[in-house]
Design a protein that fits this description.
Blueprint (H helix, E strand, L loop, with lengths): L1 E2 L5 E2 L3 H4 L1 E9 L3 E8 L9 E7 L10 H10 L10 E7 L4 E7 L3 E2 H12 L5 H20 L12 E3 L9 E3 L4 H4 L5 H5 L11 H4 L8 H16 L18 H11 L14 H5 L1 H5 L8 H5 L6 H9 L10 H5 L60 H19 L4 E3 L8 E2 L4 E2 L5 H19 L17
Antiparallel strand pairs: 1-2, 3-4, 4-5, 5-7, 6-7, 6-11, 8-9, 9-10, 12-13
Helix pairs in contact: 4-8, 8-13
Bound molecules: adenosine-5'-triphosphate.
The site of adenosine-5'-triphosphate has 22 residues, from strand 3 and strand 5.
GO cellular component, one term: nucleus
Pfam family, one: Pkinase
Family: Belongs to the protein kinase superfamily. CMGC Ser/Thr protein kinase family. CDC2/CDKX subfamily.
Length: 468
């Protein structure tokens, strides 16, 4: 118990007490990601958790009540192939937001990189198929709940490490792309880069309507990348204005799939950039699509058929997640399995992927932790990082102190919607998740129309420095 400004005693925020902060594991468009461990036996001691801290905007306007309400809705999404949002914490002092997720030891960015740069061999067919099936399964769940991910890419496809859930795919970051529609410029300046490589052609051509088909395009790109270990369409980003027309990205797509035509894609002619940049777009003609030679699949194979249907130009004709799950590709050997990392056939080698690197020296403020001011407590020691770990705990305590003085709101794991903070005007509702998610979708569309934001123009070049 601690005293607040009024002299009253109040409980420490529960969520801070239950974890030991271990260190920083990554940095994304919206903020930093930390690894923490559960301290409490009730949550099975030592359970790893990923805490995402969202950075403040330069204007310091914090997290809007609408964003918070929508995040609360994301906690309703419970599915084996969706990363679980276990805790939401808003620090009202500086209006920063912390989201705690189940921790995944791997992601497809690292898995693909490991095969390409470390072991120099392809990912086995069973693993590719199992990963793809589970991505589609998670996506089908999201789409049937009216959630469009909008930012699918290998680093957002998490894969569980050793344990009961080993090899399970968890889609991360779902729903956040819309909530935080305009990422902060300063983050890009920090060297963190987001990518246009997985962006659907209708968006590149200026469509303002997101449909679930944009996610299927991204899955097609990821499928190809799992097969070849290289991004399929590596366009060079134009950064000349806040939201420029990405000609090179489209050009890379056309080169592989051929130029789109109004015959095959009737609404093409209505897309803003198709009309306004027609000359630029159509100077180069690509008549010999070469997708099958890139992915090295026979044109008549089920795998190639599925991939082509994901990379269909016309979003209306593009295969849906539920259709894809029924595709013949998944009915043929090797049959996909729950543990994507351990093929049932003993002849297939199990690849030991490395654990995520952890930067033990960065605290929750994103600054380097000072040397520990006191002797390490042996009970919190682990491996060679004892001192740093201890200093992280100290920082955690400092953070706690800050938080306790800042009228924080903590929302603990859910059964149904809950959490009311009238002083902040933040509320969530009890009710049917499907209905709520539909409302969420409608609100999002309305907001998009009002703000007239079609897609954030914050992309940086492909040499993304995404690690710690
Ligand atoms: N639940 C999690 N468990 C383990 N690692 C995670 C988890 N969520 C995210 N990460 C990792 O943290 C890093 C940063 O993630 P984050 O989602 O913030 O950025 P990103 O996906 O690299 O880029 P962007 O923010 O542009 O989507 C990535 O390596 C990601 O795989």
């Amino acid at each position: 118990m601690v005293a607040d400004g009024s002299g009253k005693q109040r409980a420490r925020p529960e969520w801070l007490q239950q974890y030991d902060l271990v260190g920083k594991i990554g940095e994304g468009t919206y903020g930093l990601v930390y690894l923490a461990k559960s301290k409490e036996p009730a949550h099975s001691r030592g359970t790893k958790i990923a805490i995402k801290k969202f950075k403040q905007s330069k204007e310091g306007d914090g997290v809007s009540p609408t964003a918070i309400r929508e995040i609360m809705l994301l906690r309703e999404c419970i599915h084996e192939n969706i990363v679980k949002l276990v805790n939401v914490h808003i620090n009202h002092g500086d209006m920063s937001l912390y989201l705690a997720f189940d921790y995944a030891e791997h992601d497809l960015y690292e898995i693909i990189r490991h095969h390409r740069e470390k072991i120099n061999c392809s990912i086995n067919a069973y693993t590719v198929k199992s990963l793809l099936w589970q991505i589609l399964n998670g996506l089908n769940y999201l789409h049937s709940n009216w959630i469009i991910h909008r930012d699918l890419k290998p680093s957002n496809i998490l894969v569980m490490g050793e344990g009961d859930e080993q090899g399970l795919v968890k889609i991360g970051d779902f729903g956040l792309a819309r909530i935080f529609q305009a990422p902060l410029r300063s983050l890009s300046e920090n060297g963190v880069v987001v990518t246009i490589w997985y962006r659907a052609p209708e968006l590149l051509l200026g469509s303002r309507h997101y449909t679930s088909a944009v996610d299927m395009w991204a899955v097609g790109c990821i499928f190809a990348e799992l097969l070849t270990l290289k991004p399929l369409f590596q366009g060079i980003e134009d950064k000349s204005s806040p939201n420029p027309f990405q000609l090179d990205q489209l050009d890379k797509i056309f080169k592989v799939l051929g130029n789109p035509t109004a015959d095959k894609w009737p609404t093409l002619l209505t897309l803003p950039h198709w009309a306004s940049n027609r000359q630029n777009i159509q100077t180069r003609k690509y008549d010999n699509p070469g997708l099958y030679s890139i992915v090295q699949l026979p044109p008549k194979s089920p795998g190639f058929d599925l991939l082509s249907k994901m990379l269909e130009y016309d979003p209306i004709k593009r295969i849906t997640a539920s259709q894809a799950l029924e595709h013949d590709y998944f009915r043929n050997d090797p049959i996909p399995g729950r543990n994507s990392l351990v093929p049932p056939n003993a002849a297939d080698k199990v690849v030991p992927y490395p654990q995520r690197p952890v930067d033990y020296s960065t605290d929750f403020d994103g600054t380097t932790a000072p040397p520990p001011p006191q002797m390490p407590n042996p009970s919190s020691m682990s491996g060679g990082s004892n001192q740093l770990h201890q200093s992280m705990n100290v920082n955690m305590q400092q953070q706690q102190h800050k938080v306790q003085n800042s009228n924080n709101m903590v929302v603990n794991p859910p059964v149904g919607m809950h959490g009311l903070n009238s002083s902040a005007g933040i509320y969530t509702q009890r009710g049917n998740p499907a209905v709520l998610l539909q409302q969420q979708q409608q609100q999002g569309l309305r907001r998009k129309e009002q703000s007239n934001v079609s897609y954030p123009g914050h992309y940086q070049p492909p040499n993304k420095s995404r690690r710690i």
